[in-house]
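Entry 0007
Protein: DUF4238 domain-containing protein
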Amino acid sequence: MQITKNQHYVPQCLLKFFSWEDKKERKTNVFDIPRYSFRYSQSIKKICSQNYFYDTDNMVENILSQKIEAPTAPLISSIVHHDTTVLDSSENWIRLLIFVSTLLSRTPKVMDRMDSIIQTNIQSISRELLRLNGMDSRNADGVKLKIDDEAPLISLLTLQGYFASILLTDLKFHLAINKTALDFFISDHPVFMYNWLYRDLDHPGITGFGTKGLQLFLPLSPRLMLCLYDPEIYRYGSKYSLLTDVHDVKDVGILNSFQAINSKSFVVFLDRKSETNIKSMLRHYGSKTLHMQKSIEYEVEVLGNETVRTRHIVYSKQLKIGVMPSFVNVKRKADNSVYGVRNPEAFEYFSQLTQTNYSR
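Output (structure tokens):
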């Protein structure tokens, strides 16, 4: 078999809608965030990708390209052209959810978040070990775990994203159609996940897929934004429509700010008229971190013989953003003393499924 060396973490079937055809090749414009510079007419074959990002044997790469991207590509094309009837099929709906769920789990930004979780956990344990042994716990701040090969971990996270799509089946979708002069752009971590319902709640579970109030936003083109949401909590647009025409540039700005917050190294855009807006968005939002890791020691057990067992938990605390687009309406406000799961049965099944696969 021919091995794919250059492996995309944002698939070309999505990038192509932010590109144009030039001599039988799809090209686009890119803002390189680390270099703070624009790169024009870039082939989508060569952006948002790395050599052997997932694997060297193409096991995960082939799952993504053949089992997820290939069957979803025509669905995305239909949706971009405003044909939502393709999602009347439950099979197509599941395909789309798997695409979104894995896309949320397969980028370098996800690896950064996982590295932060690992380091926070290691430092939490190290502080406790130092304290119990009568040493200065502040020395734990310099303790780090080095990951020499990230590919197996990102592959595992990607496959977990595949399983996690089970938790999204109760969500509804809505399409925001951009009618303004300002384009949507897309980042190298394009799915923005948020929970507006629990934005004031400090609880370990609020950034999870199964939590009440979940929202997902994915740009499909400069003119179209896919929104997935918890219908028990929110209403998007008018009551009986799956589409909202967005005429206010403030709403487009809010949705673009989500991509700026999500971005790691690249922003991809179609029209060079967007340059000023992209720089402004990254200047205001690019330094913000959507998920900050926190650690707590939640159980201490004295076993005797000078032996103590402690349990630590690391969780993500989401950034508190100030506003949602005007077409997002909250039907039910949160009781910030109570945390809830949307579908407990699906959540339990997912937990058992991932534990079984990890144990294997």
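Curator remark: The radius of gyration is 21 Å. DSSP finds eight helices and 16 strands in the chain.
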